[in-house]
Specification:
The chain is of the alpha+beta class. It has one domain: START domain (Alpha-D-Glucose-1,6-Bisphosphate, Chain A, domain 4). The chain is built from four helices and seven strands. Strands 1-7-6-5-4-3-2 form a seven-stranded antiparallel β-sheet.
Length: 175
């Protein structure tokens, strides 16, 4: 493990595939997940820009405008409990050989501005069996995350909710 909690292999993949030009007033983060399933099975779900609800539990519905290709736009409905109900997203890059998908958020009823993400999947061995390393990274304007954190803090003060407190903490760690 290195100083930011990633293994050397994870860090190498992040440096190679998850490059963002992080501007002033932006923040970036990466999430690593190890899945006990072969890479071809995981990629068959992750690559489906037209069906993110297959692997993202907070998505309830997705409609793609036009053919599925680079530049395609999808309208996503988000389940209740998140600070949004819709998101409009554009497919920026899809590479089936390297297992890379990149998208940006171009609209919706949320506060995320200049959001871009990259997802990569990589084969690995877990407990002697084929597994998959999934890395998802993003960049977003931190001013908006700060405002979300402030509004969540106000919600927590009003409601006393532990859930609101945990959301505030997790958002605060991102920047």
């Amino acid at each position: 493990m290195n100083g930011n909690g990633f293994s050397m292999t994870e860090e190498e993949f992040i440096k190679r595939h998850h490059k963002f030009e992080v501007k002033e007033n932006q923040c970036s983060s990466s999430l690593v997940k190890h899945i006990k399933a072969p890479v071809h099975l995981v990629w068959s779900l992750v690559r489906r820009f037209d069906q993110p609800q297959k692997y993202k539990p907070f998505v309830s519905r997705c409609v793609v405008q036009g053919d599925l290709r680079i530049g395609s736009v999808r309208e996503v409905n988000v389940r209740s409990g998140l600070p949004a109900t819709t998101s409009t997203e554009r497919l920026e890059y899809l590479d089936d050989d390297e297992h890379i998908l990149s998208m940006t958020i171009v609209g919706g009823d949320h506060r995320l501005k200049n959001y871009a993400s990259i997802v990569t999947v990589h084969p690995e061995v877990i407990d002697g069996r084929p597994g998959t390393l999934v890395i998802e990274s993003f960049v977003v304007d931190s001013v908006w995350l700060f405002r979300i954190t402030l509004s969540r803090s106000k919600e927590r003060e009003r409601s006393g909710s532990l859930l609101a407190a945990s959301r505030t903490s997790s958002l605060g760690v991102l920047c």
